[in-house]
Amino acid sequence: MERYDAERMELSTRDRVALAAYTEIKEGRGTPNGGVWLDVSHLPREVIMERLPRVYQTLLDVQMLDITRDPIEIAPTAHYSMGGVWVRPEDHGTDVDGLYAIGEAASGLHGANRLGGNSLIELLVFGRIVSEAAANYSNHLETQSRSLAAVAEARSEVDSLLSFQGPENVRALQRAVRDTMTEHAGVVRSEAGLLTGLTELSAIEDRLENLGIHPDIAGYQDLAHAFDLKSSLLAASATLEAALERRESRGCHNRSDFPEQDESLQVNLVWSPGRLEREAIPPHPRRNSRADARGIDGGQTRRVAAFIRVGAQVNRTPGFNPGKVCAIGVTVAVSPTLCD
């Protein structure tokens, strides 16, 4: 880590550590399996067992690896979605009345790079805000109406998928999407790679016509995977197109062909199929707080939209602007190379 963050070293932010690992691997200094070594064996055993108990137990169970003595082979992987369905900032409501989104399904809260621990805080804060907003909305309705058209559309889609008897395996296509996104929308992006990714996604979408859905005695797992695949393709398209539009490097979004920030791109990118818009971000009003006293972001907190992975699943609701998401980047962490 001396090459990448000499001051903080291994205590640097996750995106910097991931970028360091990615660079070492790409420049040929990685392991034969395409990873790098993480060694914590210099720490006292008591510290490791106190600070990393789950990592210790998981690697012992899965790889018979004792991290108090041996190094861990790691590689960058997608970790957290910073962005998602467009929501109103005051209550996280969407374009559909009564539909709310929080956590990784929602957009904008973490800016260009989520800080460690903030995902749980987000759920605690907005979980309460959204629950109160949803309850208030419901309590003021005279009737709880159900859209027969929405139910019919959902049933029709399920029936359509169950009729697919082609040779393509849904899990193989899910793997193809993951491989494409890892290769072309990972730690470092470029215009050539993003365009290649979009071409590969288009080819995967063409293969959907030959999909085979085969329920068995174990249940409807193929059907569930098919819905996940369709949503993943939507989210992947949003990610690639927004990353292509953001010709700069900001937070965890690294463009090798545009390594500097572009202040004109301090905006939210709002994506719908066939359309990508720039949404201006008003400056946050100054408040008398510890954050301002310490001068974080010059006393102003700005919201920059980021990556979308799972949030696109809610866009199927009739009346919603389909696929309307804010998207650009992805927080990355390190995981054992054995894991997906």
UniProtKB/TrEMBL annotation:
<dbReference type="InterPro" id="IPR030664">
    <property type="entry name" value="SdhA/FrdA/AprA"/>
</dbReference>
<feature type="domain" description="Fumarate reductase/succinate dehydrogenase flavoprotein-like C-terminal">
    <location>
        <begin position="175"/>
        <end position="264"/>
    </location>
</feature>
<dbReference type="Pfam" id="PF00890">
    <property type="entry name" value="FAD_binding_2"/>
</dbReference>
<dbReference type="InterPro" id="IPR037099">
    <property type="entry name" value="Fum_R/Succ_DH_flav-like_C_sf"/>
</dbReference>
<dbReference type="InterPro" id="IPR003953">
    <property type="entry name" value="FAD-dep_OxRdtase_2_FAD-bd"/>
</dbReference>
<keyword id="KW-0285">Flavoprotein</keyword>
<dbReference type="InterPro" id="IPR036188">
    <property type="entry name" value="FAD/NAD-bd_sf"/>
</dbReference>
<dbReference type="GO" id="GO:0033765">
    <property type="term" value="F:steroid dehydrogenase activity, acting on the CH-CH group of donors"/>
</dbReference>
<dbReference type="InterPro" id="IPR027477">
    <property type="entry name" value="Succ_DH/fumarate_Rdtase_cat_sf"/>
</dbReference>
<feature type="active site" description="Proton acceptor">
    <location>
        <position position="14"/>
    </location>
</feature>
<protein>
    <submittedName>
        <fullName>Putative fumarate reductase/succinate dehydrogenase</fullName>
    </submittedName>
</protein>
<feature type="domain" description="FAD-dependent oxidoreductase 2 FAD-binding">
    <location>
        <begin position="5"/>
        <end position="120"/>
    </location>
</feature>
<dbReference type="Pfam" id="PF02910">
    <property type="entry name" value="Succ_DH_flav_C"/>
</dbReference>
<keyword id="KW-0560">Oxidoreductase</keyword>
<dbReference type="InterPro" id="IPR015939">
    <property type="entry name" value="Fum_Rdtase/Succ_DH_flav-like_C"/>
</dbReference>
